Amino acid sequence: MNSPLKDTAPLAPVHDWNELVSALVDGECRPDELDVLLQSGPQRQALDEAWSCYHAVGAALRGWLDGHPLPPSEDFAAVVLARLAGP
Prior knowledge:
By secondary structure, this protein is mainly alpha-helical. The protein has a domain at 14-62. It is built from four helices and two strands; from the N terminus they run H-H-H-E-E-H.
């Protein structure tokens, strides 16, 4: 992964933070990038939400939702679209 952080920049631009969270979830986050992610500040809530979203998507792709296995579906795309549409 190309790092969104420059060696001299103390913080990544806000638009790169989701990329940093994605790198963390994928195990590709460098220690200096992790330090940036763990800093408190106004971005923290958005980062926490992104972290939750990445893990929810991963669980759904692995066939789990809310801690329960998803039943097999013959129309996977329709099920995903229905879940994205809401409860």
